[in-house]
Amino acid sequence: MAFSAFATATAAEQAPRRASKVALLLLLPGIAYLMLFFLVPLFSLVITSLQAPAEFGDIGEYDNAFRWENYTTVIGQYSAQILRSFLYAVLATVFALLFSYPLAYFIGVRARPYPLLQKLILVMVIAPFFISFLLRTLAWKQILSDESPVVAALKALSLLAPDAYLTGTPFAVVFGLTYNFIPFMTLPLYASLERLDTRYLEAGSDLYSTPFTTFRTVTIPLSMPGIVSGVLLTFIPAAGDYVNASREFLGGTGTTMIGNVIESNFLISLNYPAAASLSIILMAVILVLVTAYVRRSGTEDLL
Amino acid sequence: MTTPQPRKPRQRPSFALGKWLLPLYTTLALLFLLIPIAYTFVFSFNDSVKSNISWRGFTLDNWTGVCNAQDVCEAFGNSILIAFVATVVATTLGTMIAIALVRYRFRFRSGISLLLFLPMATPEVVLGAGLAAQFLGAGVQKGLGTIIIAHTMFCISFVVVTVKARVSSIDPALEEAGRDLYGSPAQVFWRITFPLLLPGIVAAALLSFALSFDDFIITNFNSGAATTFPKFVYVAASRGIPAEANVIASAVFVFAITLVITTQVTSTLRARRMAAKS
After folding, report:
1. Which residues form the signal peptide (chain A) (predicted)?
2. Do the Cβ atoms of B202 and B215 come closer than 8 Å?
3. Which residue from B93, B107, B117 is facing A29, i.e. has the nearest CB?
4. pTM for the full model?
5. CB A44 to CB B133 under 8 A?
6. For the domain that residue A127 is a member of, what is the CATH number?
7. I need a surface site. Which of A232, B121, B192, B239 has the fewest CB within 10 A?
8. Strand A52-53 to strand A17-18: parallel, antiparallel, or no bridges (unpaired)?
């Protein structure tokens, strides 16, 4: 292309054009949609969270009010579930990070000379996405169940007490959360390690740094954007998940998370104000944690 | 004797972790990730009567008579329909936003970016409960329509992120050249911009379809009596999943993985051929 040099020069200089009718027309439908079906629902959630039971109404009938006690009530009633949700989510995020980092490093750095191998491994990492999330979790339930050969083998090897069980325990729930969100951790880590300039690593070893020091002072800081988005993409859905922890899947009576409480209040006992105030609490805590985390790690442009 | 020895060439640092340790770990990690998939696949051939929990022998009956299990096929059909409509709407709206964000400068830009980022940073259970509260307040009957509305909502942001990357990689000079050659705005869009955008749009559409097809949490809050495939599995989980559900999941898996591997391999081979040419 004869004009390519010229063309790229103008492309670099070109600033986005000023807003026009066209820009407005392009933005309007999608933004209106998000306002109507994302922002307004968040407001209705706030309104619902302050409602009081209708005076002569049936179960599930509420009047608008300003019952701030709804919040203190649910916090008092469900503090264990709230704390447990964040504990499980933190554990799942840490395990997913420990599991994913070497994997992402291999795909992004070591497999770099072999693009086809790189892509095939990536496909295998996202392969779990192509099988229903619920069926994957049920598969683990069967594999970890009392009758399964895996548990029998662990018992035979004395790694597990003869009367021990796995399903229905916090272990199983955290295991399920970790498994289900590993791809969300691996992909952003891969994306940032793939861009890692290995000459920095060579420079590190030329300056007589041990591999560990190079890793700690060069590799980790350079892959920080990937770590930040991976942690967010794992932590947020894990904190709100209610499939892994529910009794039909990997959980038991003692593993209920905030998502389970929101689900049962909203869909079964029709206690909408309680479900709504718990949702607002979950959302608020996540926003605070995310903002603090993003500020500290210095990756402010996430989109 | 005293001449300084030439320094030994240092090992590449990426190999410092041990030549075989990392490949071995990767292999084991991938095998671990694939265990539930293998399980689902194997149990789609299980000769079970109703609940598909323990192995009772090999049969092809579940594959030949998938729709024998009541409701599985209806739920699957609903999921396909919902994912299709949500994908078309979300991809259209999201692509328009992505073009506007890259090509134009306007007020409220950061506000709009925040509005696009927030749905991705909100736990699904909150998105689901919020919409359900809104439908409840407005007296809207929940069903297929409300599921489609919900799915479109959470897909838009993912479309914007995916397509935006593609728009930024397009050289605006190409569009300018089109205008210089007296192309109308519509001609410039359909003959220059759209073809260049297409790979990004296809990727965004596939992502939307996959997200919608597999969504359970938001669906559960907004489905009313309507069933989708994930909802069917959730309800059936307490009494045992029929093997036909494993058949459908395995078939979807084989279809999706074939599609992805083919596109990945062909794009890699094409890139290699292009590199060889230049």
Report:
1. none
2. no
3. B93
4. 0.88
5. yes
6. 1.10.3720.10
7. B239
8. unpaired
Secondary structure of A127-176 in HEC code, one letter for each residue: HHHHCCHHHHHHHHHHHCCCCCHHHHHHHHCCCCCCCCCCCCCHHHHHHH
C-alpha distances in Å from residue B64, one per residue of A297, B9, B114, B193, B248: 54, 62, 49, 45, 11
In the three-class reduction of DSSP (H, G, I as helix; E, B as strand; rest coil), residue B24 is classed as helix
CA distance B81 to chain A (A): 17
Write out the two tokens for A74.
């649910």
Residue A208 banded pLDDT, cuts 50, 70, 90: confident
Q: Does residue A59 form part of some domain?
A: no
Q: Is residue A31 part of a domain?
A: no
CB A255 within 8 A of CB A168: yes
Quickly tell me which residue has 């704390």 as its tokens: A83
Q: Which of B134, B152, B188, B254 to mutate to test the interface with A (most CBs of A within 10 A)?
A: B134
> What is the per-residue burial (b if ≥16 Cβ within 10 Å, else e) of B262-274?
ebbeeebeeeeee
Structural domain span for residue A130: 78-302
Total domain count, chain A: 1
Residue tagged 């509260």 (tokens): B133
pLDDT digits (tens, 9 = 90+) for B156-185: 999 999 999 889 888 888 888 998 999 888
How many CA atoms lie less than 13 Å away from A237 in the CB half-sphere?
A: 23
In-domain check, residue A201: yes
In-domain check, residue A12? no
